[in-house]
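B., you asked whether I could sanity-check this one before it goes into the benchmark set. Here's the sequence:
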Amino acid sequence: MSMTWQPIQGSYRAAMLPAAAHGQRGFSLLEILVAIVVLSIGLLGLAGLQAVSLNNNQAAYYRSIASQQAYDMADRIRANLAGNYNALAAGLPGTNPDCIAAVCTPANIAISDHRQWNTMNARLLPAGNGTVTGAGGAFVITVMWTEKGNVFNDPNCPVGTPANTRCFVTAMTP
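And here's what the prediction gave me:
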């Protein structure tokens, strides 16, 4: 095996080192570019995960609000057992009995509860709405809202509900 010897530059003595000692030191430009590409792909993936996390967090928040609103109506039904809650449709009722300033019948309190409940549904949820159906002393409470990016039909929603609508359904017996 033959080795080529070269003198060390700038030394006072003529020490000789093999030519392999004068090889490349540090990183090449290509290695640095590959490292930057790998790092940027990793950061893009991290940003994507953050965006998905925020979207899922918002969806969970809406489900939590819908759950609270359904239980709010259940409490209203329990507080006014003589009221007629058997068929509360989506939207606001046509009349608004002023049960705060005047004495109301149980039927008027049920209308007022319906109005207040769906007003809060609309304030707290995007396109929020609710229905109550009842038969035989049992009630089914449904809270509906739209969710951005939701393109499937929620199996909990009534037939004919738009595709981007989510529903929270609970049943209760007072």
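One thing to flag: The longest strand covers residues 138-146. Otherwise nothing jumped out at me.
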